[in-house]
Structures are given as C-alpha cells and as structure tokens.
C-alpha cells in the first residue's frame, strides 16, 4: 500500500501532517500532491476574499465538487461513485493519525 506524506500550514500558522493512503488506481502520487497543494491554496485564497465562511458550507461545497467531478468521469456511474466513496473514506481515515504542531509566532 502506497502512502503520501503531506504537511499543510493553515492560515493561522498550525502545521498539520498527514499520511494519506493512496488508492491502488492512483496514477501519480506527485500529481496528487500538486493538485492538493493547488486546491488548498485556491480555497484559502477565495475564503480570504469572500470573508467569513462557515466550515459546514465549505465542506458541503467540497462534497458537491467531488460529486460533479465524479459525474464527469466517462465510465460506469456505479464504478465512479464507488471510487469516489473509497477515496473519500481513505482520506478521512487518515485524520486518526494526523499530527498538529502549532508554529510559534514571535513578536519583534
């Protein structure tokens, strides 16, 4: 089983480390990493522009985006839905072992 180590620093300065289990059909762990970086960067940028955004609204929009992208795959709908559920469940299972590290902020 392949894993993708990933660390993200939140806009508030917390660093979170993950070990994401990759689906056997993953074509490129590097591409997955690059896409994840771009998605999170874009989300944070847009939230900063939009202002206050509830976590539930964000999660709902992400779930809907996953549904739209799943429907866009030209394959058997049951197969693509199962794949989407599998990769989402694997990603959520990684939260059990996520490590948080608060980065100290100094003042001059």
Characterize the structure shown.
The structure is a single chain. With 108 residues, the chain is an alpha+beta fold. The protein has one domain (3-102). 53% of the residues lie in helices and 18% in strands. The protein has three helices and three strands. It has helices at 29-50, 55-72, 77-93, and strands spanning 3-9, 14-21, 99-102. It has a three-stranded antiparallel sheet with strand order 1-2-3, covered by helices on one side. A hairpin with a 4-residue loop joins strand 1 and strand 2. The longest helix is centred in the middle third of the chain and has 22 residues, at 29-50.
Features:
3 strands, 53% helix, three-stranded antiparallel beta sheet, 108 residues, alpha+beta
Summarize the structure in short:
With 108 residues, the protein is an alpha+beta fold. 53% of the residues lie in helices and 18% in strands. Strands 1-2-3 form a three-stranded antiparallel beta sheet, with helices on one face.
Radius of gyration: 16 Å
Mean pLDDT: 92
Strands, total number? 3
Low-confidence stretches: none
Task: Give the strand line-up of the largest sheet.
Answer: 1-2-3
Largest sheet: 3 strands, antiparallel
* Amount of beta strand: 15-25%
Distance between the termini: 46 Å
What overall form do the CA principal axes indicate?
A: globular
H/E topology pattern: EEHHHE
Proportion of residues in helical segments: 40-55%
Q: What structural class should be given to the helix and strand makeup?
A: alpha+beta
What number of structural domains do the residues give?
1
Number of separate helices: 3
């Amino acid at each position: 089983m392949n894993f993708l180590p990933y660390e993200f620093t939140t806009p508030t300065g917390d660093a979170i480390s993950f070990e994401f289990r990759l689906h056997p059909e993953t074509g490129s762990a590097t591409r997955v990493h690059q896409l994840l970086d771009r998605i999170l960067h874009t989300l944070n940028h847009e939230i900063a522009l939009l202002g206050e955004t509830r976590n539930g609204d964000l999660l709902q929009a992400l779930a809907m985006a996953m549904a739209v992208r799943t429907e866009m795959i030209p394959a058997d709908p049951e197969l693509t839905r199962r794949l989407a559920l599998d990769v989402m469940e694997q990603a959520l299972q990684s939260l059990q072992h996520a490590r948080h590290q608060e980065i100290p902020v100094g003042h001059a």
